[in-house]
Amino acid sequence: MTPPLLAAYGLGVTIAGNQVCSGLDLAILPGQCWAILGRNGAGKTTLLHTLAGLRGPAAGTIELRGKPLATLARRDIARLRGLLLQDDSDAFPATVLESVLVGRHPHLSRWQWESAEDVRIAREALAAADMAVDLSHQLALLERLAAAVRLGDKALIMVVHDVNLAVRYCDHALLLADGEALAGPAQELFTAERLSAVYRVSLKEVAGPRGNLFAPD
Which terminus of the chain has fewer CB atoms gathered within 10 Å of its CB, N or C? Predict the structure, then answer.
């Protein structure tokens, strides 16, 4: 049986003495898109950084392709997962292309791209994700990411602030609230009752072309 791309067992995460989650079991499979949702300060980014191996968990274990994350070399981790930070500033002057090429370092013995199209796609993706962009560019980037995931050999985990973008693009979710995490299929977790509890605001469901959308009641 093929192991999950990313798995967590009994995961506990804390920050500054505050609990983000505890006892979290998680299995992320190829082809899945996951959204991490929660109020400001719930620990969404902290949880993502923990899953990516940038910080250690308070409890439990994390595995990448069936191997304990704690036993893998940093270069091997970099080959298995990528991370795009919301606010990432370069310490030295660099073009967008030069910044993108840094992400290829673990995979290549020399600076090399397969085609000019790879460079163009990467440049557009980084540029779109690195600044406040209009809705059309935001949707274009997410469409491209979702299409890459649908090829079946990748998975996507993203911190999402817009619930309806998560509804549109994600088939699984992690909901964070009051120091606990709830993980599962989006169709089970994306309900007005659950999301109202997470955000502490009354939400209602409105029928949309790709599933129900949510708006303040």
Answer: N
